[in-house]
Amino acid sequence: MIEKHLMKLRIRDAISAEEEAALAAAAGDVVRYAADQTFVTAGQELGNSTLLLEGLICRYKDLSDGQRQITALHVPGDFPDLHSFTLKYLDHNIMALTPCTVVQFPHARLQSITEQHPHLTRMLWFMTNLDAAIHREWEVSLGRRSALERTAHLLCELHVRLSVVGLASDREYALPITQTDLAECLGLTSVHVNRVLKDLRERGLVEFRGGKVVIGDLAELRRAGEFDPAYLYLERRPR
Amino acid sequence: MIEKHLMKLRIRDAISAEEEAALAAAAGDVVRYAADQTFVTAGQELGNSTLLLEGLICRYKDLSDGQRQITALHVPGDFPDLHSFTLKYLDHNIMALTPCTVVQFPHARLQSITEQHPHLTRMLWFMTNLDAAIHREWEVSLGRRSALERTAHLLCELHVRLSVVGLASDREYALPITQTDLAECLGLTSVHVNRVLKDLRERGLVEFRGGKVVIGDLAELRRAGEFDPAYLYLERRPR
DNA sequence: CGTCGCTTTGACACCTCTCAAGGGGGGTGG
DNA sequence: CCACCCCCCTTGAGAGGTGTCAAAGCGACG
Question: What does the angle CA B231 – CA B232 – CA B235 come to, to the nearest 5 degrees?
Fold first, then answer.
C-alpha cells in the first residue's frame, strides 16, 4: 500500500528491500477523514504519525481574532505529523482539506525503526527537515514577496510537489480547495487572492478554477514568483 | 565545553552520562566567526554541523531585488545547521550576526551517533523539529500579525529562548543587532521597525536600544504580541 | 574632529484590507 | 422537478498600514 508513496524518498536516496519491509511492517490502520475535519489538535498527546495516501491536508494555527494561518500544505506521500514522533504533541492543528485516506504509524513502531534501522531513521529525519525547508520558503514569501509573487510561487511549488508523486502533468493539476484556503496559506484575504488570481489569469500565466490549476505559461509563472525549486531538494547534490 | 549547552535538551528529556560522553566525543573544532560573516552558503556541500556556543547567528535568504528575509535566529545552545546532516547542502545562508564561537560536529560522527545511540538521535531530531516549530510561528507572525504584534512577539520569543540558556533576566537581555536585522526577521522595512519600536517604547512595553532589550511590562508585551510560548516546547507534556 | 554606520523623523505613495453587494452553482427538500 | 439556500466567487469603493524617498541627528571610532 505504501510502495508508490516511497517514490518521494527514493528520489533522494536508495531504500533497501529490508528497509521497505520495516516501514511496511510499521504501518498501522488505514483511516479516512472527511473534508474540513480537524484530526489533530494543538496540544493533544499523539501516539501515531500519519502518512497521507490520498487527498490534501493542511496544518494551521488560529489566532484569537479568528484569523487563521496555514503553515503547511501536504500532498500524498507526505508525513504531515511525522514530527509528532519526537515532539509528542503539536503546536498546531492538522486538517483534511479534502476527503483523505491516511495510514497511521504508531510511535512505538517508529521508535523500533530508530533502534534497528539508522539509515531509514535518517531518511525519516530528512523528511521532517524537508518540511522545515518548505516552511522557510513560505517565510520568505510571507515576509518579502508581493501578493502576486507569493501566489505564483505557491502554485509553482505545488506543481513540482504533485509532479513528484505523479499527480500533475506538465500543464495542470487538481487543487480542490477554496480561495479562502489559499488566502490562509498566503497571508492574504480571500478578496485579494481573488483579484490576484484574476490578474494571473488575464496575463495568461495560470488559471485556478473549479478546483483545478491550469498553467498557461510555466516559464513566465516561475519568473513571476521568482520560483527556484532548489529548496525542495529534488537533487541529491547541489547544482 | 558543551555541558552547559545541553541545558536546552535536558529541559525536555534526560540525557545519560553515556550519551553526554558520546556527544562530547563527536565534537570537533572550535571555530570563531566575525560579525556579519556568512559561513554557510546555500548549495554548498557540508561536512559539519555547528553548535553555537557564544554569539547570535541567523539563517537567511536573499531575493533577486536585494531584499533579504531572515528565516531563523539562533542563540547559544542552538544547532543552526544540524539539518545539514540529513540534507547535505542547505537552501539558505548562515551568518554570524555578532562575533561567534561555535563547535563543529563532523557529519561522520553524527552518523555514528545515529548508529549507536538511538535515544540521543531522537533528541537531535527533536532539536530540528523545534526549529521547524519556530519557523511555523514566524509564518504566523509574517502572515497574520501586524508590525507591532510581530515585533512584540519576536522580542518575547527571544526573551524566553535566552532565559532557557541563562542569558536573560526577568526584565532584560542583550540583543546586539541592528534595527535592519530585526526588520529582516520581521518582513518589514527598517524605517517601519524604527517607528514600531518607538511606539512600544512610548507605551512602556519594551525598550530596544544600544543592543539591549529592556522589558517594561512583560505581561502587556506578551499580550501585545499574543505571545504563547507553547510552541517552544518547554513542557514535556501539553498543558 | 571628521567620518561612517545606524537611528530617527517627515511627507507622500501604494498595496492590501475592509465593508458591502451581487452572481453562480450544486445540493436538498418539498 | 423545481425552488430555495448556502457556500463560494466576483467586483467596487474607500480606508489604513506599511513602504519609499529624503534628510538630519547621533555616537563610536580612528
Answer: 95
**Through-space separation of residue B154 CA and nucleotide C24 C1' in angstroms:** 44
End residue of a domain, out of A115, A137, A159: A137
C-alpha neighbours within 13 Å on the C-beta side of residue A232: 18
Q: With an 8 Å Cβ cutoff, is B180 touching chain A?
A: no
Q: Are residues A14 and A103 in the same domain?
A: yes
Tens of pLDDT, residues B138-192? 999 999 999 999 999 999 999 999 999 999 999 999 999 999 999 999 999 999 9
Residues of A within 8 A of B137 (CB-CB) are 61, 91
For the segment A93-105, what is each residue's pLDDT rounded down to a tens digit?
A: 999 999 999 999 9
User: Is the CB of residue A144 inside 7 Å of nucleic acid strand D?
Assistant: no
Indicate whether B237 belongs to any domain: no
Grid cell, residue A151, equals 501566489
Interchain contact A231–B (C-beta under 8 A)? yes
Instruction: Please check whether strand D approaches the CB of B189 to within 7 Å.
Output: yes
- Domain of A176 in residue numbering reads as 146-232
Both A196 and A217 in one domain: the answer is: yes
Residue A239 lies in a domain: no
CB-CB contact of A130 with A80 (8 Å): no
